[in-house]
Specification:
heterodimer, A: about 270 residues, mainly beta, Protocatechuate 3,4-Dioxygenase, subunit A, five-stranded mixed β-sheet, four-stranded antiparallel β-sheet, about 5% helix, globular, B: about 200 residues, 1 helix, about 25% strand, binds fe (ii) ion, ferric iron binding (chain A), Intradiol_dOase_C (chain A), Intradiol_RC_Dioxygenase (chain A), protocatechuate 3,4-dioxygenase activity (chain A), Protocatechuate 3,4-dioxygenase subunit beta (chain A)
Chain lengths: ~270, ~200
């Protein structure tokens, strides 16, 4: 379970080297590489890549309290979204302004399934990202890289009856993590997912295959072992490419957390 | 005495969470996200508070989501969770904390179990955190029964005497009064629980 990462860190948020993030707070960054899983070869942390364990002052120190939600638990249901919530144009981040954004145009699509393999239907998917220069259209991002007047970098869509989502956007640029020497974030898309149950809520990041920055990225390595973090890397899929226009990437997602089956059947 | 609850095993192929990061403010908030109560509804309650870190400092730009039953006790099943029509109640709210770590929510009191489900995202948290905001502490609540008595008050919103129909609920990430955070496991009595997992 993804919450393992929090549980493992509970109580051992030891002080280490600290970087300053762009909102002026700390992130712990002990100066040793994350341990690798020898049974699962793949992309290993480059020597000296510090693991990202979160902000030592923000991680709860006490264990998470397990809850087996009974039928009355409101967390086994979740918010409902519909056509009124999302405009079809919200899924094309290249058409939100009068001109074309700079950058390599991409299509990102995939399926959302629950932990039992059932499609997550009619649920909200949100995407936000930096522009092609690695700058967010967000006032907290004060880096000296250009803003693109034709790119905001925020999109939404609803999954279809097969649990599929689909976005058109541009490939974001890498950006440096302030306060650390040459710590560049690989190109990534931030994603938010809803299941039919509030327990299935997921916010995560998607990466691109073959990115040379991946072995050096503390945040990607914090996701877990080789097999686990490989689930955050999309696959190039020529079948999703639009000839003469965009490169296609497929990324499928599995939401964890219990859901009430009775609630899903009706939606 | 409630027996210890064992966390469920993760689904073998589940997608791991990653931090929300600092730059979500241009993308995730939506109009009236903190005001799910229909405009002018006489039963509207205000809930507000501050998210605090282990040094007692406010946590700015955190994202808080709330999900709850309607006043009739059932989970709202009407679409429109992002686009308020001013009439219906969809049960979902999303707010960000300001530079002072403060948030404010205007909602309707939940029917049935007297709590709001809460999900907290922030830069510096590799995984979101679930908790609950109770308006009262019922005697027969399974979660509360499993908690030591001194931790239950961390989940209780307290009446704010300075304001009409207002409650205060602070979230403390660490410290003596660290908020209780939750790990949801498979419900024990679902007809197909534990079978057919992918
Ligand atoms: Fe980012």
């Amino acid at each position: 379970m993804a919450s393992e990462s929090v549980r493992e860190q509970t109580g051992r948020a030891a002080p280490g080297l600290q970087g300053t993030d762009r909102d002026g707070s700390r992130d712990s960054a002990p100066g040793r590489a994350a341990p690798e899983n020898p049974a699962a070869p793949g992309i290993s942390a480059a020597p000296g890549t510090p693991p990202y364990t979160g902000d030592p002052l923000r991680l709860p120190r006490r264990p998470l309290v397990p809850v087996a939600p009974g039928p009355e638990a409101v967390e086994l249901t979740g918010p409902v979204f519909g056509p009124a919530d999302v405009d079809p144009l919200d899924a094309d981040l290249t058409r939100q302004h009068p001109g074309d954004p700079l950058g390599e145009r991409i299509t990102v699509a995939g399926r959302i399934l629950d932990r039992r393999g059932r499609p997550v239907r009619g649920q909200l998917v949100e995407l936000w990202q930096a522009n092609a220069a690695g700058r967010y259209a967000n006032r907290l991002d004060q880096r000296s890289a250009p803003l693109d007047p034709n790119f905001t970098g925020a999109g939404r869509c609803l999954t279809d009856d097969e649990g599929r989502y689909h976005f058109t956007t541009i490939r974001p640029g890498a950006y440096p993590w302030p306060g650390r020497h040459n710590a560049w974030r690989p190109a990534h898309l931030h994603f938010s997912f809803f299941g039919t149950a509030f327990t299935q809520r997921l916010v995560t990041q998607m990466y691109f295959p073959g990115d040379p920055l991946l072995p050096y990225d503390s945040i990607w390595h914090s996701a877990g072992d080789e097999a686990t973090r490989a689930r955050l890397v999309a696959a190039y899929d020529p079948a999703l490419s639009v000839s003469g226009s965009s490169l296609g990437y497929r990324w499928d997602v599995v939401l964890d957390g219990p859901a009430a089956t009775w609630a899903e059947e009706g939606r | 005495m409630t027996p210890p609850l064992t966390p469920a095993a993760p689904a073998p192929n589940s997608t791991p969470a990653q931090t929300v990061g600092p730059f979500h403010g241009h993308a995730l908030p939506f109009a009236d996200g903190g005001a799910p109560a229909p405009s002018g509804h006489p039963r509207t309650v205000t809930v507000h508070g501050t998210v605090l870190d282990g040094a007692g400092a406010p946590v700015p730009h955190a994202l808080l989501e709330f999900w709850q039953t309607g006043p009739d006790g059932s989970a709202p099943a009407v679409p429109g969770s992002l686009r308020r029509d001013g009439l219906g109640f969809t049960g979902f709210a999303r707010v960000t904390t300001g530079r002072d770590g403060h948030y404010l929510l205007r909602t309707l009191p939940p029917g049935g179990a007297p709590y709001l489900a809460v999900c907290l995202f922030a830069r510096g948290l590799p995984h979101h955190l679930f908790t609950r905001l109770y308006f009262t502490l019922p005697t027969h609540d399974p979660l509360l029964a499993a908690l030591p008595a001194d931790r239950r008050p961390t989940l209780l919103a307290t009446p704010d005497p300075g304001h009409h129909r207002a409650y205060r609920f602070d979230i403390r990430l660490q410290g003596d009064r660290e908020t209780v955070f939750l790990d949801f496991t498979e419900p024990p009595s679902r007809p197909d629980a534990g079978h057919g997992d992918v």
